[in-house]
Amino acid sequence: MEYRQLGHSGLKVPVLSLGTATFGGVGDMFKRWGNTDIKEATEIINLCLEAGINLFDTADVYSQGASEEILGQALKGHRENVLISTKASFKMGDNPNEEGSSRYHLIKACEASLKRLGTDYIDIYFLHGFDSLTPIEEVLRTLDDLIQSGKVRYIGCSNFSGWHTMKSLAYSQNFGLNRYVSYQGYYSLIGRDFEWELMPLCLDQGLGLMVWSPLGWGRLTGKIKRDQPLPPGRIQAGGAQGGPTIENEYLYTVIDTLEQIAKETGKLIPQIALNWLLQRPSVANIVIGARNKEQLQQNLGAIGWQLSKEHISILDEASSKLPIYPYWHQMGYDSRNPKPIKW
User: In sequence order, which residues have a C-beta less than 8 Å from that of residue 322 and are 6 or more positions away?
Assistant: First the structure.
């Protein structure tokens, strides 16, 4: 297992972590993603530990807390040797203060997560989304207080826009508060918007990217093929609902390219898609999901080798899209405004 520095921090994380949104299966949305119980979760986590995966990602909203509870039980006896990241901000109850990033909600949410996880500290605490109604000074001072109290060790943000992130970092710097060290965001071969603004920001400001949904909401698992019906499973069951709309021809062009490279390398389609991500700038970690041991073992095949520059170039071309304004305009000013990735 390769370990990388998490942004501008001293923390090292494995390049693969286990996402636990499939744990629990509570509610219509998460039931479609998976319903891993404590027994299977324990088996999956033991396999992760054997492979060197020691970072486990969850959120309070996953199955309304059931994911955190199962993860906490499955990690008993291993806590000192693992890293746990979880998230807060989304709605967790009917009370109007049961969502957002207010001091009231964050403190309550953090304490509830600690109880469900069966631990007295969280290694990386993410804001799951930006709360524009709560003053940014209230948000960041609360997160700083959680670090000072020992309940949280590092903080990060997820799904923020570029200006949300930069405003937060600037406030932390100006007032001497602990700053975000990680950005957790969506990035895949069929979802490259991250490259337009967030990637340059992460590189400039020292944020390590933790990638969620690296297989494009399950579309790059190798099960979807051109001119074939959807196979039984998460996608057919509606598990991609809530994700971005993907044009069929664009999707199949990328899949056709992955199939071609799979034949040439002897690797599986999801392994190629994950390996491509591991070679992108700013990527510190990829959060992989696994509803069972077989899926985990398959995803582990993404490490220990590298795609050739030629194959990366072919994938880049097949998955490229013209970015929105002002990014397409900036493409013509590379002499003074270079980008880490050519779109």
Answer: 328, 343
Q: What is the mean pLDDT of each run of 10 residues along the chain (343 residues)?
A: 97 98 89 89 96 98 96 96 98 95 98 98 98 98 98 98 98 98 98 97 98 95 88 60 84 97 97 98 96 91 97 97 93 89 81
- pLDDT computed for residue 331 by the predictor: 87
How far is 313 from 60, CA to CA, in rounded Å?
A: 39
Q: How many CB atoms lie within 10 A of CB 246?
A: 16
pTM for this prediction: 0.94
pLDDT at 239: 53
SS3 at position 17: strand
The C-alpha atoms of residue 276 and residue 274 are separated, in whole angstroms, by: 5
How many helices and strands in the chain, by DSSP H and E?
12, 10
Q: What pLDDT is attached to residue 31?
A: 84
Residues with active-site annotation: 62
Cis peptide before 326 (omega within 30 of 0): yes
User: What is the Cα–Cα distance from 86 to 294, expressed in whole angstroms?
Assistant: 25
Helix runs in the chain, H state only = 28-33, 38-51, 66-74, 103-117, 136-148, 162-174, 198-205, 248-265, 269-278, 293-300, 309-319, 327-330
How many CB atoms are located within 10 Å of the residue 317 CB? 11
DSSP 36: B
Going along the chain from its start, the domains and CATH numbers come out as 3-218+277-306 (3.20.20.100)
Look-up: residue for tokens 């390590």? 208
Burial 33-42 (b: 16+ CB within 10 A, else e): bbbbeeebbb
